[in-house]
Amino acid sequence: HTVVGAGKAEGSIDAGNMLKPLLARGELHCIGATTMDEYRKYIEKDAALERRFQPVLVDEPTAENTISILRGLRERYELHHGVRIQDAAMVSAAILSDRYISDRFLPDKAIDLIDEAAAKLRTEMESMPEELETLERRLMQLEIEREALRKEKDLASQSRLQALEKEVAEIRTERDALRAQWEAEKNTVGGLSLLREELERTRLEMDQAQRNYDLNKVAEYQYGKIPALEQKLRAAEERLGGEAKLIKEEVTPEEVAEVVSRWTGIPLSRLLEGAKEKLLRLDDILHKRVIGQTEAVQAVTDAGIRDRSGLIDP
């Protein structure tokens, strides 16, 4: 639709009219994408241009199709953000966006959910962990108090100073251990990112070799370099996953639900609650809205449970 009317001025023709002869003679093969509103506004009004195209309606993908699309994009987003994305997070993004975000379309809204959740996690990875930051603040507070007590000469202050010195030493030891763990995890995560980048680069080189029909190089990549890199990546991920982690480098359904909650204002607990849990407490939910209709509420609840369980009245 951006071609129609582009460059039009008095005494000249626009880009759409310049394309018509080329399209009619078959010299130009063109595929365009537009929305139904813009198709009706720009293309449909120009009958000569419209008949040179064959409209193909592309419907919004279902949640199941969106999950497949997200799985195809998974490696690119993992590489871009330097994090891992759980398969459950992609399923959650497709389902929650389809259910709660009504002003946008799939797969765009589900992709944006994954992108924002991964970006948020990456930002947290670059920041100091909350446990370490709490210790740093506590240590600073105690050191300020210690310096003030050193100026006092009374017995109570000297006694408090001795206890404070002991507490400062303990917190500093704990802080140093946490900092060392954090630095080690940061290095491991950085190594994971480098391995993912190298794996992606190797796959691109293999694709280029396939296009060039260089079968020796394809075999070298497919059966040598790529399996070795994948094995190294799995070993590094298992090593990081086996530790008590300060850095979280995996996008889970909880991170996706947090983004949806922030976009929509729906409480996080309601988003994470499954359909089964909602159905089991349906009577409590209805009683809050319907007052004095105990039997009717119970009948509706029983009917809903029977329907979901597949039972029917014989």
TrEMBL record:
Give the keywords, sorted: ATP-binding, Chaperone, Coiled coil, Hydrolase, Nucleotide-binding, Protease, Repeat, Stress response
GO:BP terms for this protein?
A: cellular response to heat; proteolysis
Recorded GO cellular component terms are: cytoplasm
Instruction: Please give the name of this protein.
Output: ATP-dependent Clp protease ATP-binding subunit ClpB
MF-aspect GO terms = ATP binding; ATP hydrolysis activity; peptidase activity
The UniProt family comment states:
Belongs to the ClpA/ClpB family.
Q: Which residues form a coiled coil?
A: 118-212
Instruction: Describe the subunit structure.
Output: Homohexamer. The oligomerization is ATP-dependent.
Q: Does the keyword S-adenosyl-L-methionine apply?
A: no
Specify the ClpA/ClpB AAA lid domain's residue ranges: 63-164
The family database entries (InterPro entries) matched by this protein are listed as: ClpA/B_CS1, ClpA/ClpB_AAA_lid, ClpA_ClpB, P-loop_NTPase
* Annotated PROSITE patterns: CLPAB_1
Cross-referenced Gene3D superfamilies, in alphabetical order? Answer: P-loop containing nucleotide triphosphate hydrolases
